[in-house]
Amino acid sequence: MTVWKTSMRNFLAHKGRMALSAVAVLLSVAFVSGTLVFTDTMNTTFDKLFAVSSADVSVTPAKAETEDTPQNGVPLSLPAATLERVRAADGVESAEGAVVSMNVTVVDGDNDNVGATSGAPTLAGNWTENDLRSMEITGGHAPRGPTETMVDSDTADKHGLEIGDELRTIAQTGDFTARIVGIATFTVTNPGAAVVYFDTATAQRELLGGPDRFSQFNVTAAAGVSDARLKANVSAALGDSYKVRTAKESADEGREGIDEFMGVIKYAMLGFAGIAFLVGIFLIINTFSMLVAQRTREIGLMRAIGSSRRQVNRSVLVEALLLGVVGSVLGVAAGVGIAVGLMKLMSSVGMNLSTDDLTVKATTPAVGLVLGVVVTVLAAYLPARRAGKVSPMAALRDAGTPADGRAGRIRGVLGLVLTGAGAAALVTAAGADKASAGALMLGVGVVLSLIGFVVIGPLLAGVVVRVLSTVLLRAFGPVGRLAERNALRNPRRTGATGAALMIGLALVACLSVVGSSMVASATGELDKSVGADFIVQGNQRIVPQAERAMLDTPGLAHVTRYKMLDATLTSPDGQKDDDGVTATDPTYAQDLRRPTTAGSLADAFGTDAMAVGSEYAAAHGVRVGDTLSVAFEGGQTAKLEVAAITDDDTAIDQGARYLSIATMTKYLPADRVPPNTIMFAKAADGAADQAYTALKRALDPYPQYQVADQTDYKQELKDQIGQLLNMVYGLLALAIVVAVLGVVNTLALSVVERTREIGLMRAIGLSRRQLRRMIRMESVVIALFGALLGLGLGLGWGATAQKLLALEGLNVLDIPWPTIIAVFVGSAFVGLFAALVPAFRAGRMNVLNAIATE
Fold first, then answer.
1. 254: helix, strand or coil
2. Is the pLDDT reported for residue 576 higher than 80?
3. Which residues form the MacB-like periplasmic core domain (predicted)?
4. pLDDT the model gives residue 150
5. Taking 60 as the threshold, does the pLDDT of residue 68 lie above it?
6. Could you tell me the strand order of the sheet in which 57-61 lies?
7. Do residues 374 and 72 touch, judged by C-beta distance below 8 A?
8. Are 200 and 217 a contacting pair, CB within 8 Å?
9. CB 643 within 8 A of CB 603
10. DSSP code of 469?
11. How far is CA 542 from CA 70, 205, 547, 563, 703, in A?
């Protein structure tokens, strides 16, 4: 009980000094809790939607999957006549046919895409009784003819659509227009999908390519009949040619894709939260180390009157426990706020999430509390252990905490060994022949080098801080030398403070190098390999009407079609491979200059010929002149001669197996031919600008596709990688904020520790302005020390990662020096910002009171 009272007294006595550490715990726990609440809420939203919208039993084609991406772009369908067999099955109350397609684009009168912008699909189909499970008509009426359509209210609100407006729907089977006659509103949360409805006949004709077809049957069970019993009855009536699922099975299947997507988001965000926790550990260690040092006399008195080492140790750990509990409780509450903020952010980009579905599972606060408390207590263990070692007599003589030279030497040797092992692992990764093996060694190298730098930080501080001081501080005379001495006074503290900033900046530097190298490699590969003037692609495959518009564009020397086919290859050694093939026009050899290791790519576009990649050829012993068996899905099996082996040392079309479109049409029925994944074009001589303008005009009615020349394509690639990096930097900002709090806390506690010294310096003539400058300089040099370590580590990690990317064809190492320099300079401003409050407080000290401080 005495230990508890002592710890509580000390905690409350130093509550101001504990505040920043508590904020670090709060931020880290809040990010973890917010991530869990956000992902759980997303799962709840989709679970409700799937549960409500799923029919008691659904019947779909046997090969139908959750994602509507058949090879030929037209949804798989069922014959309408089969519906009567379903209705006749025992236990069926009612059954209806539904048409659903996700392979559509809907545009308004201004030719703007009204689909979701969040990545959610655009759904088109017929209005059915089953839709009433999750929607209700709140304006107008359901479509009744070929010129009428109905949209969901979220899409209408987002794009300013009203009853009477005209929409054009672009499907694989053609374009058609209809006027809005109704608005339907979701009765559950709509995660962001755009939904348009048509009458059944129009949906069948325009979305499925003909009458008397349905995408699925929705079956309702009679009273007293379970879903499982109904499924068995319907399956017995239809046989094995169809896929029959209960409502639960349909919901589970729909949830699988969502769970995979949410898992990526969840673990990525938790990873960044872990980085923030790691940075927070240094802050907590520094805080308790300094508090222990400042209470040396107090601890000595406790030992002198009978307190054991265990009691002193336990007293410090109880303080850490209090800090962890307070920070974690506040963090869990803040996490709910972060989750709500993320939901609002997602809503602003088109994914609607209602706070009515806010889900806080019991495990979330438990995880937050346990994680925050355990991390805090573990971080405080070393300072607590050090407190227990304080000698009563040494403390009473104000000798301070014991200096352990042997421990420092062991620490130095251990740090050098870990750093050397990390460097060796990075070198091994850079020389790896396979990306998988290299990635493992890269991970080992990153972890070992990071730990090594943390351990050896105090030794590095003595060297790096002196160098930085010589360059930056000596020009400020005595004040600069005082700042240098203060930074070097406790190398362990300086090392830990700098290490906190080092972690975040190392990741920033590494990712900057990787991103810049990817852009440089890809643009270099484009310059070297791409001969086409224009590239056309989009989020969906290119519909035939857009293909015709491109083929009819004036000023083009040629247009190249590019189709990806589902097919199974059988090599001469009898091994099967179902990665598919690529069918394209002979002009592709001009549009993409693929080097070959054997044969000529142009020959591969002859009849009954093909090309394979060098890796496939090496794995299966394939040579030019060999014959491969190619079984086209939905078509015949062909015997094709290998006319070329392309070099897979590239980032473009690595591993592609080419054949001509003429060969494809010989073995694949017309209704199974897939639309183009991408198309290329070459301008006629001297007509590049005119052809570019004409091509953009020709494809203007199809806003889902982008026309890009090589300059546009490079910029788009750069923008995409830049957006990804900015998102990652935003998440890493949490760790950097915690690191800044660490610098603030270190300086604040250092000012308290040096109160008497500051009073004496003021007494002999140091002005308030000089004092504040000294503290700011100390902060800047500590921040720059951490930045140098972090940027150095990050550059090493990034260069190694680029060597692994080179195995995938990204061969250019590009170091973004402007970014690196900006981060280094920014670190100096971080140091200045962190010193504002401590410097202000130091400047306001009363000189006499400071001198009289014990």
1. helix
2. yes
3. 19-236, 497-694
4. 97
5. no
6. 92-98, 216-221, 57-61, 242-246
7. no
8. no
9. yes
10. I
11. 14, 20, 7, 10, 11
Contact criterion met (CB below 8 Å) for 622 and 571: yes
**3-state class (DSSP) for residue 682:** strand
Other Cβ atoms closer than 10 A to 85? 16
10 residue type, one letter = N
Q: Which residues contact 569 (CB under 8 A, 6 or more apart)?
A: 576, 577, 578, 579, 581, 628, 629, 630, 631, 657
Residue that is written with structure tokens 């692992």 in the block: 425
The residue written with tokens 């209470």 in the block is 295
Question: Cα–Cα distance between 611 and 660 in angstroms, integer?
Answer: 10
What would the two tokens of residue 483 be?
A: 């700042």
Segment 628-650 shows an average pLDDT of 92
Which residue type is seen at 386? R
Enter the DSSP assignment of 647. Answer: -
Greatest Cα pair distance, the chain, in angstroms, is 103
3-state secondary structure of 64: coil
Tokens of 295: 């209470």
Task: State residue 66's pLDDT score.
Answer: 40
The pTM of the full predicted model, rounded to 2 decimals, is 0.80
- Asked if 35 contacts 269 with a C-beta cutoff of 8 angstroms, the reply is yes
- Give 219's contacts (C-beta < 8 A, 6+ positions apart): 55, 56, 57, 58, 59, 86, 92, 94, 95, 230, 234
Q: What percent of the chain has pLDDT over 90?
A: 37
For the stretch 727-757, pLDDT in tens is: 788 877 877 887 787 777 777 777 766 777 7
d(CA 854, CA 849): 10
Quote the tokens at residue 805.
Answer: 């990317």
- Give residue 217's pLDDT: 94
- DSSP one-letter code for 202: H
Q: 68: left (phi > 0), else alpha (psi -120 to 50), else beta?
A: beta
Inform me whether the pLDDT recorded for 808 exceeds 90. Answer: no
Cα atoms in the Cβ-side hemisphere of radius 13 Å centred on 295: 25
Q: What angle do CA 253, 537, 147 make, to 5 degrees?
A: 70
Residue 32: both structure tokens together: 């973890």
Share of the chain above pLDDT 70, in %: 90
Question: Which of 146, 171, 148 is CA-nearest to residue 137?
Answer: 148
Tens digits of per-residue pLDDT, 197-214? 999 999 999 999 888 899
Closest CA to 217 of 193, 190, 238, 186: 238
Rounded mean pLDDT, 612-631: 94
217, β-bridge pairs: 59, 97
Contact 299, 386 (CB under 8 A): no
Q: What's the rounded mean pLDDT across residues 707-720?
A: 86
Q: Do the beta carbons of residue 50 and residue 195 sit within 8 Å?
A: no
Measured N-to-C along each axis, helices 544-551 and 688-698 cross at an angle, to the nearest 10 degrees, of: 150
Q: How confident is the model at residue 358 (pLDDT cuts 50, 70, 90)?
A: confident
Instruction: Tell how strand 576-577 and strand 567-570 pair up.
Output: antiparallel
Q: Does pLDDT of 64 surpass 60? A: no
